[in-house]
Amino acid sequence: MTFQQSAVTQVAQSDSGVSVKTQQENLTFDHCVIACGAWSKELLKDLN
C-alpha cells in the first residue's frame, strides 16, 4: 500500500481505474481515497 500527499487538480474514471492528476504528474490507481474536506465537492464534481 502506498500513501502519497499531493496537490490534486483532477480526478477521473479511466479504463484502468482512477486517474489522478497532480501538479507534478498523472497517476492511475485501482482504488483511491479522496480526503480533502470542503474541497471534495469541487474536485469530484465530474465523477458519476
Report on the structure:
This protein is mostly beta strands and about 50 residues long. The protein is built from one helix and three strands, in the order βββα. It has one domain (about 10-45). A hairpin with a 2-residue loop joins β1 and β2. The model has no long low-confidence stretch (mean pLDDT about 85).
Radius of gyration: 10 Å
Extended strand count: 3
Q: Separation of termini?
A: 26 Å
- Assess the beta-strand content as a share of residues: 35-45%
Please tally the helical runs, counting DSSP H or I stretches of 4 or more residues: 1
Mean residue pLDDT: 83
Shape: globular
Largest sheet, in brief, is: 3 strands, antiparallel
Number of domains: 1
Helix content: under 10%
Placed side by side, the strands forming the largest sheet appear as: 1-2-3
Low-confidence stretches: none
Question: Which class do the helix and strand fractions yield?
Answer: mainly beta
Order of helices and strands: EEEH
Task: Fill in the keyword field for this structure.
single chain, 48 residues, mainly beta, three-stranded antiparallel beta sheet, 1 helix
